[in-house]
């Protein structure tokens, strides 16, 4: 339908015009601006000029698509990538045959051969993992580059001080493989001046001093923005690449995602009528209601809904702000389009649920969560369109 593209253009950035030809099978469109992703990478790299900027593309590139995002980042100069799981690393490897890929969740028992076959590096987080990796490398003669994860107060993954001392007492383990990186992770890097951050950095230095010298990495997106004290030899940029705010009060990154949901139908209802499950929202005026084909199963979080007691989130149709009406359903959400010209708010049109005017963090705040969760909840039903790159 030839009006479809025109309606899309009216609701999105001018530079996407002509790039996106919606298909009748699309229920919603997730537009991913790879130029913005690359600009964010450059900005984070320039903040830590003495360090290598690695890119974290776990959870399918924070929900946006790990392979296209990683390719764009590699084109921008990223050489080292972090994912969470072995499966994610195996999916990424064919796209980036030359890159260094670390697996943050470490080495599951018996997994060493899978790492070696795809030239992947485990982030070794406890003594048993180190012993197994060292044993495998010794038995096979594989050089075994890997990271050693130190826990400086997070109590999640990594060796604590007792573990570091025990490791230092086992030089035969450290000689059996290549400890190519020593890393730790900050618990409170989302807040400027949190005393825990310095406690962790100091402990990181004390722990590193007990181990053979190796490149070090402490900062993720928040730590990069906290300053050079935390940059070491490599930073691990994640959410900020994708436009999320990692450090409270930091200037916003460039928005990377726009989400447009298709209007399935527009209906009319009047004062006293209620909308949706629980009859939670009662209309107070003659209203036009657009029903879009995205709901909480698509990451449009249920807490974004409204009720008589609480205003919900809103979206946009062109310049028009459209509030959510009632509860968000699994696959559908209702928006109040009473004030929007009929030519824009009609079957086959689009409502922008997320985008430069309504960022992942703003939407997250509405849903009492964080931008990370909004991004990683973006579901598989969306058609992902990559722009630029
Ligand atoms: C997820 C993760 C990162 C990236 O964190 P962001 O806050 O998204 O930048 C870096 N390091 C580790 C260990 C992680 O788990």
From TrEMBL:
Q: Which SMART domains match?
A: Ala_racemase_C (SM01005)
Pathway in which this enzyme or protein is active: Amino-acid biosynthesis; D-alanine biosynthesis; D-alanine from L-alanine: step 1/1
A GO biological process held by the record: D-alanine biosynthetic process
Question: Which catalytic reaction applies to this protein?
Answer: L-alanine = D-alanine
Identify the residues that the record assigns to the Alanine racemase C-terminal domain, covering every copy.
Answer: 256-387
Named cofactor requirement(s): pyridoxal 5'-phosphate
Q: Which family does it belong to?
A: Belongs to the alanine racemase family.
Supply the name of the protein.
Answer: Alanine racemase
């Amino acid at each position: 339908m030839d009006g479809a593209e025109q309606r899309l253009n009216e609701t999105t950035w001018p530079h996407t015009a002509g790039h996106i030809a919606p298909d009748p099978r699309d229920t919603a469109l997730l537009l991913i601006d790879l130029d913005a992703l690359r600009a964010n990478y450059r900005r984070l790299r320039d903040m830590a000029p003495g360090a290598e900027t690695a890119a974290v593309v776990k959870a399918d590139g924070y929900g946006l698509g790990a392979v296209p995002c990683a390719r764009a980042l590699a084109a921008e100069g990223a050489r080292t990538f972090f994912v969470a799981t072995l499966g994610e690393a195996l999916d990424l490897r064919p796209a980036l045959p030359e890159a260094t890929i670390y697996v943050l969740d470490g080495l599951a028992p018996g997994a060493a051969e899978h790492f070696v076959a795809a030239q992947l590096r485990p982030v070794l987080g406890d003594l048993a993992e180190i012993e197994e990796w060292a044993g495998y490398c010794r038995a096979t003669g594989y050089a075994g580059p890997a990271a050693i994860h130190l826990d400086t107060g997070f109590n999640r993954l990594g060796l604590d001080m007792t573990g570091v001392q025990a490791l230092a007492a086992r030089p035969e383990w450290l000689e059996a493989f290549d400890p190519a990186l020593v890393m730790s992770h900050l618990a409170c890097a989302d807040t400027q001046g949190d005393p825990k951050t310095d406690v962790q950095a100091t402990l990181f230095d004390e722990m590193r001093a007990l181990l053979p010298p190796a490149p070090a990495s402490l900062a993720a997106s928040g730590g990069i923005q906290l300053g050079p004290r935390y940059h070491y030899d490599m930073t691990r940029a994640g959410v900020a690449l994708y436009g999320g705010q990692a450090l409270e009060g930091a200037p916003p990154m460039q928005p990377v995602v726009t989400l447009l949901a298709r209007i399935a139908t527009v209906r009319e209802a009047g004062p006293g009528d209620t909308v949706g499950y629980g009859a939670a929202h009662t209309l107070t005026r003659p209203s036009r209601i657009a029903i879009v084909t995205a709901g909480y199963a698509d990451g449009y979080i249920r807490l974004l809904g409204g009720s008589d007691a609480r205003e919900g989130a809103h979206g946009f149709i062109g310049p028009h702000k459209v509030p959510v009406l009632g509860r968000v359903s699994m696959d559908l959400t209702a928006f109040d389009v009473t004030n929007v010209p009929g030519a824009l708010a009609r079957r086959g049109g689009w409502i922008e649920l997320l985008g430069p005017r309504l960022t992942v963090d703003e939407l997250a705040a509405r849903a009492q969560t964080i931008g990370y969760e909004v991004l990683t909840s973006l579901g598989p039903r969306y058609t992902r369109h990559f722009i630029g790159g």
